[in-house]
């Protein structure tokens, strides 16, 4: 009996437990302090009425023999896949129904998709990055090359054509940096992927936060991406489904290598190792795309966008470099002075009672940076932004 | 770029599409025929009131900011894991809370658990079998040894101590044969697994159908199983959750090999590649274990058990050998005469307008056998059983 010893190469996931430990310690020593978190990576607004109604109708159906639903299609009910295809159609992207796969989360699919690839493949992953891309490749023993995302390229690195690879990861708008690629930059990444005979794994989980024109919502807005890219998207941030669990993955039929099609391989993987998303959750997801649903989730997104703008204004007043916020719930700020991200974390906690996420938790290039998020309440975000601005200005005055 | 070429070793999953094609053809040629299916592998009774109420309460919570739930613990909320631990306690099995992992389906976990093992390991799998065990191992390029489940061993094979292996699959009560292992037989399998330094992957998805004393509901009723066995169980058949998606997997902390613990490896796998089961579904699952919930799901199980008894009686009247029914929703009957399972399928469809599942679809040793299921309505099951009995007796008279 041999275990998969590649698991030994994984680091402990200590980032958020470390944060919790430090915050807990501070609160214990300062019981009257009002600590506000700008580090929340989860939505906080409730499900919108259209979604709640769809859930209630679904539960009612499940309570009667005549309308009960048992096993559904593993890749999702056609009613939901049709709604997703229409969502793409509205921005000029044409997909076939069987290119869309409904699942329980982009995180699951981003991990499970690696089943389809040989473990000798080399993965190209930006740094800083959402840790799941790295860990899932380490678990399979794959070699990883990192792409430097740094201030000099505004955290939007372009391909280095001298470097070869097999799997390319991009996340736009990005977690943790909030930076979003332009159409021309993504066009270069698609060309690079095709030139290298690679597959682009494109994480679009934050696309619904995009406000600027010219920033693609889907990789398939780029010509020929349907011959090289798999797209992961989710209802989590778009419609507050983090506790309801529903996402989708697009695997175009144009992705073929050595006579094998990735679309039929993924179908085979999902029908063998997955049994679909709950019927009631799929009905809820369908309701997101109804006219009322879209209007209601747009209102929730605007709520978070106002928070992002509040944080951006504070940083601008204090003259701090940052990315994100405009097209993303994340704001990625440079730590002031020569502070590293954990030092800044501690100072911000102790002097302003505000919590955020040290950039070092997302990779080497995150070390002098700090992630703030727009998922709090208006009241808390406003107060935390004021405290942050005041502290940053104080430091500036002192030099 | 290399794909995982092991996918090419997979057979097309044509069993149920082949059945649908043949039934469709028959109906087209005989539009007035009333075809009844005894081949349903899915539950048909609605969710019980306790579960429906819990779902409604959960949806209500998700509709308000104060009680909204976003991301939950990947391994399941403590309230549900505690209820599962208590369920085991009632039959004398002691588990720690962190040995129980909630997920979206036994099928998912049975596939995903293989991430933890080296691909050079040899899998020992009974034949006939639930196809997922075979396919998930083929996808990883593993060698499979089959264990013969045949009439001579009443479809309950015991270990062959001359054969070595690393992963042992058992499903009891079995799909497709309905046969259930005794405590002494399972004790022998556990001893064999320990002797070989292997891991036992024990599928207990049908445990709630067990009626006979002396038939274990859990592998952990066997001494030392907590050093060698992982158990997969599900709310699907127990409480009609096939469309709601909730299951659990037990990975005892006693499973350690070469300094690595399978419990912490599975936790790492799930926290990296999974994001938990919907909050409302976990509340629904918790409600199954309430006094009302248990009483209500027991009534549904009794409904199916009556169907199983109806089918068993018909086969006994006709003097046909079968396994299952007593502790299982499946009845596995020998095809009469020298018919193979597809011939019998066609005869039964044409002469009695009854549909079942040819045993050949579950492996070599299923070829002269046929699977009937207890998931239909009382009325349909009664009529189909009468038609089946009549046909079998006619054939017997004719010799």
Give a brief description.
Two copies of one chain form a homodimer. By secondary structure, chain A is of the alpha/beta class. Chain A has twelve helices and 15 strands.
Number of domains of chain A: 2
Structural class of chain A: alpha/beta
What's the pLDDT, averaged over the residues of chain A?
A: 96
What is the rounded Rg of chain A?
22 Å
Give the helix tally of chain A: 12
Main sheet: strands, sense, barrel of chain A:
7 strands, mixed
How is this fold's topology laid out?
The structure is a homodimer of 399-residue chains.
Chain A: H1 15-29, E1 36-37, H2 49-62, H3 78-89, E2 100-103, H4 106-112, E3 122-127, H5 131-139, E4 143-148, E5 167-171, H6 183-195, E6 199-203, E7 229-234, H7 235-239, E8 247-250, E9 256-257, E10 260-261, H8 262-273, H9 279-288, H10 291-317, E11 322-324, E12 330-334, H11 341-352, E13 354-355, E14 357-358, E15 369-373, H12 378-398
Parallel strand pairs in A: 1-13, 3-4, 3-5, 5-6, 6-7
Antiparallel strand pairs in A: 2-8, 7-8, 9-10, 11-12, 12-15, 14-15
